[in-house]
Each structure stands twice: as structure tokens, then as C-alpha cells.
């Protein structure tokens, strides 16, 4: 099953959104393929007003993209791993190089440089444990300046991080 979501800009301090815009964003964050007629009924506007507002929010960069969420099993990533990575403390050059390298790997579907005991949190999707083993040997070895890593294997999603559940800021 394919779901569609809207990615919404993080900083909305300068965005001029009224209550109708906010209601529209809440609806399209969950399903951006919902017909304008249905959206208009939900938010109390005309269909043309809904279309005009959505177009404006895209042009202003409030809505920054329309994406399809594809079942990982269809992309060859049926196993999801959360990987906690510690690098040797070599400074920003190695940290930035590791980040660039992870961004190039198709198995890495998300990555964060974090504070604390770990340096990175990766979400890795692979078709098999053999593929994950190959990934770790290529990317998480000492030669890659990785001191240690810990793998958490996902059993099932409980809250999907790709669909924002947080309300828009006032």
C-alpha cells in the first residue's frame, strides 16, 4: 500500500497562516491526495479557495514536497535496523565525512548526528541479514573510523515518524 504525505517546513515563524491554512495543512499532512471538494467541506471553504491556498503554500515553501511512502518490502528493504554509531573522536572532518558517506548509501533511509554517548543514529533498511552484514563490513568498520556500533532490529512500527503527528505551532 502506498501512502502520500506532505512535508511541512520546520520553522514557520515567518509563515502567515490563518486558521483555514492550518486546517488544510492538518488534512494534507495525512493524505495529500484527498480531493479539493472533500477538503473544502472539512475546512469550510470553497473548492477554488482550497486549491488557491494549497498553491500559495507550495509557492511560499510552507509545503516543501509531496512524497510517496512505499512499502519497504517493495524496495528491497524488508528488515529495518536502528543503528547507534560511535566514531573515534577525530573531530568535525571525520564526522562530516561519515555523514556524507551515509547520505550516499541507499540502505540508509534516515540518519541523525546526535549528542550524547553516540555520534549518529541511522535507520537502515536491507533485504536480508546478509545484506546488513555486508553494509556493516563496508561502512562500520574501524577503517571507517567507527569505534563501535549497536544494532536494534525493528519488530514492527508503532508510531510512523514519516507522518508528522505534532500539531502546527500557533
UniProtKB/TrEMBL annotation:
Keyword line: DNA-binding, Transcription, Transcription regulation
InterPro entries reported in the protein's UniProt record: AsnC-type_HTH_dom (IPR000485), Dimeric_a/b-barrel (IPR011008), Tscrpt_reg_AsnC-like (IPR019888), Tscrpt_reg_AsnC/Lrp_C (IPR019887), WH-like_DNA-bd_sf (IPR036388), WH_DNA-bd_sf (IPR036390)
Any single GO CC term annotated in Swiss-Prot or TrEMBL for this entry: cytosol
GO biological process: response to amino acid
SUPFAM superfamilies associated with the record: Dimeric alpha+beta barrel, Winged helix' DNA-binding domain
Boundaries of every HTH asnC-type domain copy: 17-78
GO molecular function: sequence-specific DNA binding
PANTHER family: LEUCINE-RESPONSIVE REGULATORY PROTEIN (PTHR30154), TRANSCRIPTIONAL REGULATOR AZLB (PTHR30154:SF34)
Protein name: AsnC family transcriptional regulator
Organism of derivation: Novosphingobium barchaimii LL02
